[in-house]
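Researcher: Here's the sequence for the chain we discussed earlier.
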Amino acid sequence: MGLANLVPGISGGTMLLATGVYQHFVAAVAELATLRFRIQTIAVLGSILLGAGVAVIAAAGIAEHLVVHYQWVMYSLFIGLTLGGAPLLLTMIKPLEKTAVMWGIAGFAAMAVLTWAQMGGSTAEPISSSWIMLFIAGIAAGAAMVLPGVSGSYLLLVLGQYLAMVAGIRAIRDAISDWSFDGILATMPVILPIGVGIVIGVVVVSVVVKFLLDRCRAATLGFLLGLLLGAVLGLWPFRAGIEPEVGDVIRGERIGTTEQASEIDPAHWNTATFTPSMTQGGVSLVLVLGGLAISLAIGRLGRNPSDEQAPREC
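Model: Thanks. This is the structure I predict for it:
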């Protein structure tokens, strides 16, 4: 989950789903929302969040470098990791009925539309960051952490709050490193509404998903499977960065001068597809298969007999 959140366009929820712990995560969050604090529930959330935190801290620089300079390598690996969750979900849905298939197609179609929108790039300009807009942006980011295949960065760009959120995080990080209490307080008008929104987004989506799994298990699992398979559409590996020019919109900000264009981090460049060489195609296939094997192995470790109960219709 931590590694997925480091890679643009990939949802941490996708990895939770692919490794077979998605239901346990949303159930744990939903239970804490009722102010029940069982040791097992805290252990589930603690282990997932600790693992994600360690991955983010340990691999942030490496992952960013690989995504920027070897995107086809990283995305090939993530295609395999994502597809590895499909067999586990199919096992949980058995017997496969028409309801699950229909909702699976709906989930796949929803991801196809979202992928098409993301591939087109966001042309949204930054919007004035009132606390209400920041709060809404936080809810969107929190929901994206739980919903498989949904990119939180893209939702923030659409809402025009990406730059405000990044600037707020950078400011509070600098204030903490400088041990500046006044600096930390100065970031609260941005960080507080975003933080509260994220918590609400995670809790609300987890409660809704838990409710749907309890009441409409077959349809919900089918829809999640569709989201999982559809997420692969946004991971086409053979894309490369395009050097920005005046007039382009990068991360919600329109470039006005050549100097401004030259200062943009390559990690934020827009991308376009390219034709891979034979070697790249072969290595990509090996990485997909490797990611698939890893995901299948993790999924088997996390398999629980209770996950394979007969699906319930609405």
